[in-house]
Design a protein that fits this description.
Layout (H helix, E strand, L loop, with lengths): L10 H49 L9 H7 L1 H15 L2 H4 L2 H13 L4 E3 L5 E3 L5
Antiparallel strand pairs: 1-2
Helix pairs in contact: 1-3, 1-5
Amino acid sequence: MAVQPAPKFTSQQIQEDLRAFERRITRAVEYLEPKSYRWRVLLILSVILVLLSGYNFVTTIKLNVEFSVLSALYEDRYFVLALTFLGLLIATGAHKRANTSAIILARNRQILLEYDLSCNDKGKLIVKPKSE
């Protein structure tokens, strides 16, 4: 069996291929960005809720000789609920979902470096000068 030579591509074919690749990355980022934003908002609100209820928890603790953390937590259920909700968000991977588009762009940038390319935060390709 003879080895066939690699096909020769014209510069126009290469440009069309790059444009199609750029459109695909841009579409993926545009699709994921609203979902990422919602997860970020949910995480930020959850953290603020934990901070506010934690502050309330700390300022209303009745210090006495028989102080028990469990009894204090039982009395301040808002703090326990907020902390549980934040823990569930983190356990289900909400912190990863909040950065999905950034993760995809970073992985694409790593691969594109081999071809002297990169992309911006919107997914548009950037041609870098050839490295020798």
